[in-house]
Specification:
The protein contains 14 helices and 17 strands. The chain has 432 residues and is of the alpha/beta class. The protein folds into 2 domains: 173 residues, Aspartate Aminotransferase, domain 1 (Alpha-Beta Complex), CATH 3.90.1150; 249 residues, Aspartate Aminotransferase, domain 2 (3-Layer(aba) Sandwich), CATH 3.40.640. The chain has an 8-stranded mixed sheet, with helices on both faces. It has a 4-stranded mixed sheet with strand order 1-2-3-16. Helix 6 packs parallel to helix 7. The longest helix has 22 residues. It is globular.
Length: 432
Amino acid sequence: MTGIQTSNSKALFERASKSLVGGVNSPVRAFKSVGGNPLFIKKALGAYLYDEDDNRFVDYIGCFGPAILGHSHPMVVKAVSESLENGFCYGASNSKEIELAELVKEAFPNMDKIRFVNSGTEAVMSAIRLARGYTKKNKIVKFAGNYHGHVDALLAEAGSGLATFGLPGSAGVTPHTVQDTLIIPYNDFDAVESIFELEGGNIAGIVLEPVCGNIGVVNPKEGFLEFLREITKKNEALLIFDEVMTGFRNGFGGVQTDYQIKPDITILGKIIGGGMPVGAYGGRSEIMDMVAPLGPVYQAGTLSGNPIAMTCGIATLNILKEEKSYLKASYQVGKLAKNLEVLAEKYNVDLIINTYGSMITPFFSSEYITDYQSALKCDKELFSKFFWKVLNDGSMIPPSQFEAWFVSAAHTEEDTDIILDSAESFFKGLKG
């Protein structure tokens, strides 16, 4: 499947398969959707990943969001190295928690108060519990194809109906667990109205990726986010934005900043820790004060506010705040999108490209991608072949058609040209 030398990665995968489930610690890393064996990464510097066979790849995975500065930024490394000398974990409060919280609040003014946790999944779980505790209602609306971590209540399958009640989407998740999860199509105004007509008095909130990233990049239709804000207020439900992927990806803020929408609760993830294991949820004081020790909604964590993770996040956000990182990354996304469109048209390849800030997804499809159902119609076999072509030529994209690519401020014109040359060669070869 690959023309590059990967014998060390292959041996490591065989070894890993004896001790790790599926040889990996997260399913997408297993390369199931593209075939072949996964690569094992030895180091990451700037815009590049280096595997155990010393192959260098231009990185378009970006740790699925956090590596917006590129990997191992010298200023971030320096800050973390200095912090390590003071200990790894205290099990007590530290001033870095306050400093990072203040930076996040500066970027997200709708968050009066914040609670740090250790992952996006933990933040989602806590935010859903908080929404139910605050509203004293049980049901949560989510959109098909939006991924909010492996929280049991949100691992529900989406049906094809206009307003579909959840069914378990994973073994080990009981029907009882997802009975209060309601799933509807993203970008569907009528479905939102229908679900509130059916269950409005029982809905604690809507949780969504305001710009989707987990089915690839899918932007909201005009007026959709505003409509959600209006209907949740009308029904005394909370609007919860999951900005684990989109936070800090298009500027010093999130989708809510771009669209001037005020969600009730915001969920953030690994980017606020610069890639360290961090999550957070926050919102208006009256909502957040429901969380212990002030209120009855319990949530706790020994590693929450870890000083090393906080330091890494502070260094990263301060650089994002002061440097022109966004201009660099968005310029390369623009160049990549424009030239891929030109090449697809030249070689008559069905390709739809969606972007948001420094995120991009080329879909192998002839129709616009506006929701989960339209994304599922993409040519996954063609994507798999494309994946291996660009990998062999020195670029690593996510091993799934249904993932966003992430571009960093460290990417150069030359890096972008590498994948564009691969794409042209691939498209041209399809004619043969």
